[in-house]
Specification:
Length: about 230
């Protein structure tokens, strides 16, 4: 996948569970990526590249959602900021300290926060498209907050955000802001297949995110059919 002017390559080999992401195997920047073969298969290995992709993915998300709201005749206020942090409790959301190895949208402060060391390690291991998926999912939670969407169960909130992230990426591919590369579809599918809840997790459990199949279906539904199938 290619963003203009930012390059997107392999997408998502270990992704998030819902509203936040599980730890990468080594949360600190590591010299060896998760893939087999040469180091840095995607050429995504510098902090400067990572910072550029963070900024670019935020810009793409803001343009996307501004356009969506404008088409409905509504004004849109972008998420206030995207904030990196490094230590447990360095930032809090409504008084709750944010842990390491995490990314989250905080409605109380209207910001997205992410552990920069963990996210950079994932960026190196997975590729720069990871950043677009991460920002797309968390931005979706910000849109849910703007629309007053609060589902009864966590899993419903998260599957809707997966669908919205899929719509974001799919629509930007269709309008030319993002360009699919040869292996992106397969790698996206592999990544989403790895993020489901453990077998037996009840639908109504607090923090449930959905099975791998449910999460895949939600993302693909948005990717292929845009937002009309996301229940907005």
């Amino acid at each position: 996948m290619r963003a203009r002017p930012v390059v997107l390559l392999a997408l998502l080999s270990t992704l998030f569970t819902a509203g936040c992401l599980p730890p990468v195997e080594d949360p600190a920047p590591a010299p060896a990526p998760a893939r087999s073969g040469a180091v840095d298969p995607d050429g995504t290995d510098t902090p400067e590249e990572f910072a550029r992709d963070i900024r670019a993915s935020q810009d793409v998300a803001e343009r996307y959602w501004t356009g969506v709201f404008q088409r409905t005749g509504a004004g849109f206020q972008p998420i206030r900021q995207v904030v990196p942090y490094e230590r447990d409790g360095e930032l809090d959301c409504a008084g709750e300290p944010l842990p390491r190895n995490n990314a989250v949208y905080c409605s109380a402060g209207d910001f997205i926060a992410y552990d920069v060391n963990w996210a950079f390690a994932a960026f190196r291991q997975i590729g720069d498209a990871f950043v677009y998926y991460l920002l797309g999912h968390e931005y979706a939670h910000g849109i849910q907050a703007r629309l007053g969407i609060r589902k009864q169960f966590t899993i419903e909130q998260e599957l809707q955000a997966d669908c919205m992230a899929g719509a974001f990426i799919g629509d930007k591919v269709r309008d030319g802001d993002l360009e699919m590369q040869d292996d992106d579809t397969r790698e996206l599918a592999d990544g989403l297949a790895a993020v489901g809840d453990e077998p037996g997790q009840p639908w109504f459990a607090e923090g449930a995110h959905g099975t791998a199949e449910q999460r895949m279906d939600a993302f693909v539904n948005g990717y292929e059919n845009s937002l009309q199938n996301c229940g907005l």
